[in-house]
User: Which sequence fits this backbone?
C-alpha cells in the first residue's frame, strides 16, 4: 500500500501549476465563498480573473460558456442562488 504524506500548509499561499491566483489580493475561490456565490458564479469569476495570466481568450470563452449555462438555468428557474 502506498502512503501519502501530506504537509500542512496554507493552500491559499501555495498554488499547484502557476501563480495566477496566489498573486492576487483575494483569490477567486475565497471571494466566491465569502460572497456565497454559486459554483457557476465562482467559475465565471475564476476565468475572467485569470485570463491574462493563464488561458487568454480561451478562458474568456470558458467564462462566456459558463454565463450561457447560468442564463439557461436562470430562465428555467433552476439556478441555485448561494443565499
Assistant:
Amino acid at each position: 500500500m502506498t502512503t501519502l504524506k501530506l504537509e500542512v500548509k496554507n493552500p491559499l499561499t501555495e498554488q499547484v501549476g502557476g501563480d495566477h491566483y496566489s498573486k492576487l489580493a483575494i483569490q477567486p475561490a475565497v471571494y466566491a465563498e465569502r460572497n456565497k456565490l454559486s459554483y457557476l458564479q465562482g467559475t465565471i469569476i475564476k476565468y475572467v480573473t485569470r485570463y491574462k495570466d493563464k488561458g487568454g481568450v480561451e478562458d474568456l470563452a470558458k467564462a462566456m460558456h459558463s454565463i450561457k449555462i447560468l442564463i439557461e438555468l436562470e430562465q428555467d428557474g433552476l439556478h441555485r442562488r448561494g443565499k
About this structure: The mean pLDDT is 85. The radius of gyration is 16 Å.
